[in-house]
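User: For my dataset I need records formatted as: sequence, then structure tokens, nothing else. Please produce one.
Assistant:
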Amino acid sequence: MTIDIHDSWKPYLKNEFNKPYFESLIQFVKSEYKNEQCFPPGPLIFNAFEKCAFNDLKVVIIGQDPYHNFNQANGLCFSVNDGVKHPPSLINIFKEIENDLNIPYPISGNLERWAEQGVFLLNATLTVRAHEAGSHQKQGWETFTDAVIQTISDNKENVIFLLWGGFAKKKAKLINSKKHFILSSGHPSPLSANRGYWFGNKHFSEANNLLKANGFKTINW
């Protein structure tokens, strides 16, 4: 299993890759991919790190698990491949962008276009077994992705962290709020959104306002 990440991440993560827990995790993932149907496809497991260079990173969005149905997961949280039906959470994300920024609802649910502008789309667990949500949790992925969040917090400034839902909000403890911006809201899933915890959070315009105020180029959401 090759770890395909943009070169800019390597100086920050090379020590993590050499830790015993990570070696055990990789063995687990190799075995799962050999014996079970898993997502995303092997070459896309580290796609978030490949598509968003460390130096370009401006915004972080944290998801929990990859999508676990065929052709959905592409290694970026909340994102699906071109031509794939948009899952409910992604629909609500796009509806909020539509209302917040008056941008037309997009045809494609592929969020690579965000990643290439500096939006780091990180799932806490990077792999999953087909049709079994959470099946690769507690194998070491969370240890790794927590270390990634901490690394971003320690080595960058003025990053905007979008924490949606209870799971993501727990990651706030890894982030230095004196150096960075944390925007929290309910999760975009229908359960949360329909109770009034998601729509109207205006995170997309707020993120752009913060970027502009700190001299960064805004995101074309």
